[in-house]
Specification:
The protein has a single domain, classed as NE0471 N-terminal domain-like, CATH 3.30.2020.10. The chain is globular and about 30 Å long. The longest helix has 7 residues. The chain has a 4-stranded antiparallel beta sheet with strand order 1-2-3-6, with no helix packed on it. The protein has a two-stranded antiparallel sheet with strand order 4-5. A hairpin with a 2-residue loop joins strand 4 and strand 5. It is of the alpha+beta class.
């Protein structure tokens, strides 16, 4: 589907960089969700950094996930986030 995630990388400050099948790339901030229900466990940064993709969804090992509609609605385009050009080589991830 067009909203399926094809790449995800944890960033600093409880954010994730996401690339979707439809070509969209952006940053999703999880801080507003950290104290809510099953996402409480993501406050452990070592656990948070275990983010991955399962069947096109952004997920964590204990089956937490981000609903595709939430991801689409709240993901900031990568171009508007002032990320460094060397995103994957500077230790922020």
């Amino acid at each position: 589907m067009y909203w399926d995630a094809k790449f995800v990388k944890p960033l600093s400050d409880y954010r994730i960089y996401v690339e979707l099948e439809n070509g969209r790339k952006g940053i999703f901030d999880l801080k507003p969700y950290l104290g809510r229900g099953v996402l409480h466990e993501l406050q452990d940064i070592h656990y948070f950094n275990q983010v991955g993709i399962l069947f096109g969804a952004v997920t964590w090992p204990n089956e937490q996930d981000i609903a595709p509609e939430t991801l689409l609605a709240e993901m900031l385009p990568a171009e508007s986030t002032n990320l460094p050009n060397n995103l994957f080589n500077n230790g922020l991830c």
